[in-house]
Amino acid sequence: MAKFVRSSKFRHVFGTAAKKDKCYEGFQVSGNSVDSAYCAVNPKFIAIILKSAGGGAFLVLRHDEVGRLDPDHGRVGGHKQDVLDVAWNPFDDNMIASSSEDTTVKIWQIPDEGLGKQILQEPLLTLEGTSHQRKVHQILWHPVASNILLSASFDPMIIIWNLETGEAAVEIDCHPDLIHSVSWNTVGSKIVTSCKDKKIRVIDVRKGEVICETAGHEGAKPQRVAFCSELNYIFSVGFSKMSARQYAVWNADTLENLAMEEIDQSNAVLFIHYDPDTKMIYLAGKGDSIIRYYELDKESPHCHWLTNYSTNVPQRGVCFMPKRGCDVSLNEVAKCFKLVAKGYCEPVSFTVPRKSELFQEDLFPDTQGDEPSLSASDWLDGKDAEPKKISLRPGGDGAAKAAKKPKKGLGGLGKMAPKKKEAKADDEEAELIETVKQLKLKVEEQEKRIKALEDKVGH
Question: Coiled-coil region(s) at which residues (predicted)?
């Protein structure tokens, strides 16, 4: 018998927008034309790049600072020109990097209580000098090593910074034209890039050498790439000669094309979010009102469309929460924050419907935690390591417990803000909820046994 429906536990994933009282509003999103998400999120804060005059700035909000923004709310405003990208440190939820048209990259420390009405203008560290000569449009933290940061500029240059010394550790100069996007592999030994010359390149980061390259999408508009190391794939989005949007799947070792499909005729550049735990791809375009999600597979055709989340309002930018910040009690497999041009940020939860209220192990395998696997010096010396994983099971070694561990900082450049006791309280509360659920199940079983025995004695 032919099998018409592909089996997948994520086939019924659906997106739900937060109610208005759980959204953020009252700010002006940057109007810069660079291809940027304009926001970044972690389990504590959301950062939003603002439209500003007389220097670049971005907003940092705690997750509970919902509703209309106080006009006097603080912001980070230390750049001389527009901020183009922001990225939270995956190993320290209070540390964020920003890049700007002023050719610099700055590292900032955000207090646990947020900014309040403070205007933060003194960074922990400024990365500048003769390295980047033009505006820096993308920054990425290393996936497993602490205090390693990548920046890509209009030079076009890619620089790997050692934040412990504040100096450029590696300079990669192998692109003849503008770099459209960069993505690390899981262990941080390679990157994949897309360029205005329409080529996709896999690069040995420490050596700064191209391992392999291939012609990507044929269209002239920007294309973007993502390393999907768990499947040894590279996923890309771009345009055909006829300007139709496409996605493609490539072999990460040889860059052999495994699949290429047309999406639609829109002209918006798509941004890629890859979830290594579920092997799902989320595609969101600036100016679109749709977020598409797909599932990658080892078998041909390698990429399967699941469904779309759509609204009536076009998005200006989208950022995704790290998996350790998702609510597993709601079976939330992904959560994004959607910016719209009018100054409104809307959280969207992607959940899988299940009847059971117990922890769903198949939906939530161990995920990357907030502890680095290597130091900056170890990685620069040539060592590689897999990410340190944590369990998302309530009461286990999940994000709340991991957040209590002390951070080392940037080689003494900044003193970390003391951690509060919120993580411990959240951990204990989650464990208590799980215990109560298990006790309820046991009580129900005992009641059934008692009823059966009473019926038996009655007869």
Answer: 429-456
